[in-house]
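Q: What does the assembly look like in three dimensions?
Context provided by user:
Components: two
Sequences:
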Amino acid sequence: MQKVIVIGNGMVGYKFCEKLMAADPDRRFKVTVFGEEPWPAYDRVHLSAYFSGSKAADLLMAPLSWYTDNGIDLRTKELIVQIDRAKKCVHSHLGNIMEYDYLVLATGSSAFVPQIAGVEKKGVFVYRTLEDLDAMKSFGKQVRSAAVLGGGLLGLEAAKAVMDMGLQTHVVEFASRLMPRQLDESGAGILQAKLEELGITIHLNKQTSAIKGNGKLAGLEFVDGNSLDVDMLVISAGIRSRDELGAGAGLETAPRGGFVVNEFLQTCDPSIFAIGEAASCAGMVYGLVAPGYEMAAQVVNQLTQQKAKPFMGFDMSTKLKLIGVEVASFGDALGELEPSRSIVYENKDKGIYKRINISSDGKRLLGGVLVGDSSTYNMLLQMVQNDMPLPPEPEDLILGARGDKGGSNGMGVENLPATAQVCSCENVTKADLCGSIQAGATEIGALKTCTKAGTGCGGCLPLINDLLMVELKSMGKVVKNVICEHFDYSRQELLDLVKIKGIRSYDSLLDEFGHGDGCETCKPLVASILASTWNELITKQDTIQDTNDRFLANIQKGGTYSVVPRIPGGEITPEKLIVIGQVAQKYGLYTKITGGQRIDLFGARVDHLPDIWEELINAGFESGHAYGKSLRTVKSCVGSTWCRYGVQDSVSFAIQVEERYRGLRSPHKLKGGVSGCTRECAEAQSKDFGIIATEKGWNLYVCGNGGSKPQQTILLANDLDTDTCLSYIDRFLMFYIKTAEPLNRTATWLNKMEGGIDYLRDVIVNDCLGIGAELEREMAFMIDTYACEWKEVVNNPELRAKFKHFVNVEEPDPQVAFGPMRGQKIPVGWAG
Amino acid sequence: MLAEIEKYKKAELSSDIFWFKAAATNAFPENGGACVKYKDLQIAVFNFTRRGEWYACQNLCPHKMQMILSRGMIGSCENEPKVACPFHKKTFSLKDGKNLNGDECTITTYPVKVEDGFVFVGFDSHY
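A: Here is the predicted structure of the complete assembly.
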């Protein structure tokens, strides 16, 4: 058995171990890892998550047990102080001596601290380790403002951390723009504007000459004579390789830091390798994770006698979300390496900047910068890396295809060459992925497991998904819209089966038309179909419901639930308001007004839910179905009863509509709105159905939504009387329920519909399919059979008994914990 | 900081197993789960009626450290019995606790037996 010692247990050191374990199933190597920090390797890339509530445990690359399970001797808190190359052994600061056959230096780097007078003062920190963060956290509690020295990638991460601590945040950068290595002036300008919007003050062209203060830091002085008063300073001005072991061992180090290695990551001693930020390869230290992982892989290949690829530099393209702003830079981002021409799109209104650099012959994409919207990063990077031909109108790459030219702009995954690297964290190519798909990994989970693609930063997942679809199609597999492995049917087919065969339970549907034991996809979907067809109480089959529908409340961080009573049209009496207040007070609930004109009560223990609802029901409330894929609210403006502009009574109509469709189960949530005049204060045009009053009646709009991809409604019919308006909504909603794919809002459903709004209008208004009466009949059945689920539970002791955390003791969950915020409570301890 | 998750250690099927009498079988819903307290541990117990099988695992979802798995939906993935966390639908094998989404985190599973209408969960007797 050969002895491998790894010095350093950072991300790259860990990745080396993981790859070696995978490549050495027979355990021919005995691995010992020394780490000077007290915990095993953690994800330094996402360190700022530690400030937004993540626990250290969530950042771990692998739990302690992983090391023991794999027979790795992990020695944390033990620092190697000497390498004895003659005897092939290392000495630790505890006096331990250990022999090696191969030594891997993965010592990483430390924060580079510039020589500034006063840098030793209290209140000055570096941003590098969990210990640094803990120190910053505790100091940050006593102060109000902080500056981050360095406006690069790491500096902005540090600024995010400082901002999350609630401090007034300043960023001080020596160069004339933020992220000078990755962005050009305009891109950096857009990023700066976005950060300033968030309250971060940016100081450019500032060279710090001294740190003011008497023992404790009081501010910064700049060479230009200006100064900045702050209580805390975080230095994030770059990294310096940890190569101090080199001198004593006679290993060559580079003038700017790092163990000098050849293209096989070997130092001058062939049994000693250096990887990650500790290595200086052709004069370059790589401060990103992906090249470090690649180095780890190549050393593993050599140890296990696999074919090793020489490490000849690494693409430093990067895509990340900085303080909520998407930033990407790829290839020759600044167009400096060869003559090039640029295409630039800048939208200061939306905070978007895109630039691509094209070779002077106009044939190849060389690189570019994306700020504010990096959705095309993966494909653009692929084009650069694979020298793919540019489309005839290269501007389509950043503007999308416009006009009548159709959708194709040469950016589909089918155009990628086989060698294209799809996942850069794990170095997985298109050929690798296609091979695995052909070998049987035909769904995304299996594909991730067998190739490891998408398991690092996850940024390539959309691309992998597209690739999977295209590959399956090209293999001649019918990419049928089946809902999951348990049913070879689409939602619409299942709904027809349920109706025609009169199936009323999930189990009998699975027995008759499915296989296996079901899953979290098909169970709630079938539950929704059953509810939309038979309208029986969903509590009858509680274990096929999503947790929200099972407990008839919305699960929130920490495992407590929120409660939303129905307040139709947003109209509520003072008496009912008082009851809500009293219930919230009694059960200690956080209260907030929702976007749909209701009141949400958060932090309810599962065992309190029936008691809370008993009191609400006694006061005349009923379920608001905020937990279900069902009708939520019908928002209204005050309308003609009070408003001097109103032309119809929008509140009365909103209440009528909301009560008509309350409890209606559907493929996704449903929202409505009624406005009393064309000023549209109820924002009805952003709802699944919106009604706007006219002098003559109502205009009916359909298929809008807010959310991540807002879409405006389209006018379906105008100047309708009340009854016609209702019958059109009946038809519209029932048609949607019967034909939409699962979890598609009405907007998405319409977008996919052949014939679009004209066809929909034909079905609803002109009744071209002759199903209008049937749809109305089906809706009438739903309206007639409605019953409040909570009322049923409150009055049924057997159902009530299901609402508890433990079945063997009468105790609440001891892990539930709250902290204070602005006079109310919030849950604590959510990871990430 | 690692304390909470490190508490959940598998009881090896050896002589050193303590069978904790958790609750009557009818306390656990058909094809669903419920949570049992044993000392300071929270254990999710599943009554997989469809397969005629019982399973137990830690109630703690390691993804966001939430005490929740007992409220998750159970099912199968190519015949492997599994539970899905209600929060973000991470799924775990009920047999060996392996994460079925290709992520790193796994959960601890515990042996279960049913005798005389009661459900027993097996723990390391030294815990």
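Follow-up: The longest helix of chain A spans residues 722-739.
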